[in-house]
Amino acid sequence: MIFNRIKIHAHEAGLYFHDGEFRGLLDTGRHWFFDPLNRVRVDIVSQRTPWLAHEKLDVIVKSGVLEGRALVLDLKDYERGLIWIDGRFSHVVPAGLYAYWTTFCKVKAEIVDARNVRFVHPDLPIIVKSQAAERVLEVVNVPASHAGVYFKDGGYVETLPAGRYVFWKNIAEVTVVPVDLRALILDVAGQEIMTADKVTLRLNALVTYRVTDARASVSVTDNATQALYRETQLVLRALVGARELDGFLADKDGVGQELEANLRRRMSSSGLEIVTVGIRDVILPGEMKDLLNKVTEAKKAAEANLIF
What we know:
Layout: E1 3-8, E2 12-18, E3 21-26, E4 29-34, E5 40-46, H1 57-63, E6 70-75, E7 79-85, E8 88-93, E9 96-101, E10 107-113, E11 118-119, H2 124-128, E12 137-142, E13 146-152, E14 155-160, E15 163-168, E16 174-180, E17 184-194, E18 200-211, H3 214-219, H4 224-241, H5 245-250, H6 252-267, E19 272-283, H7 286-307
Antiparallel strand pairs: 1-4, 2-3, 2-5, 6-9, 7-8, 7-10, 11-15, 12-15, 13-14, 13-16, 17-18, 18-19
Helix pairs in contact: 4-6
C-alpha cells in the first residue's frame, strides 16, 4: 500500500519512526502517511499503562517530546527509584533510564542513594512486598531474643536488635550474623580424664552461658560455642589431672567452682558470660567401682565391730 492510515485513540500515543529514525509523537486522531517504500513505523502505546518501555527510549527522551507529558528518570549506578502511581506504591527500579506517562496517571518518583546499603523507609513493609522487589532488595530477619551482627564488605558496622532489615543488592557484600542472646546450656559429655594416681574417669559437665557481646562472639573466634566446649575440656583435664581420685571425689564441688572461675576468665574476651558450671556425672571403671564398694563395706564392718 502506498498510503498508511494510523488511528490513535484518546488514551494512546504514537511513536513515529521513519527509516529507523525517531520523528516525534502522534496524538489522538487519524494519521495518513505516504509510504511507498514501507519506511514508516508507528508504535502505538497506551498512556493508561504509565511505564513507557521501548528499545529506543534514550532517543525518544533526548528528542524532548516527553517534556510535560512524562516523568523521566535517569538513575546512576548507585541510585534506585521508588515509584508511586495514583497514590499507591508500584515498584522499585534499579539504575537505568525510565519514562512514565503522566497524562492519565499521577506518577511520583523518589530517588534513593543505595550507597548507604541499608534501606530505611516509612513505607518499608509495602515496598518489600511489591512486584520484583527481590531483584534489588534483600530482606534479613533477626529473630526475637537475638541480635544481628552486621558486616559490610567484611568490616563491622553495627549490632542490630531483633527485627526486619532491608539492604540494597549489588552495592556491597552484606552479612548479618544472628546471635542468640538467651541463656544456653552446653553439655560437655563423655570426657575421659586420668587422675594424678592414674585412675581413668569419665566425666559429664554442664555449662550454662549467655552472649553479652554479640560482636565479640562472632569476631574473636570462628565459633564461640565450640571454643567454650574446647576450653571446658582443657580446664577440666587440668583440674582433675592434678588431683588423686580420693581428693577429687571429696571436693567435687570445689573442682566445679574452679572450673567456673577459669572459664569466666578465659571466655570473657569472646563475649560470653558463664552463668553456672557443674560436674553432673562421675563414672568410674568397673574394677574401680568394685574396689570402692569393698572399701566402703570394710569401713562399715569396722564401724559395726566398734559399736559391738
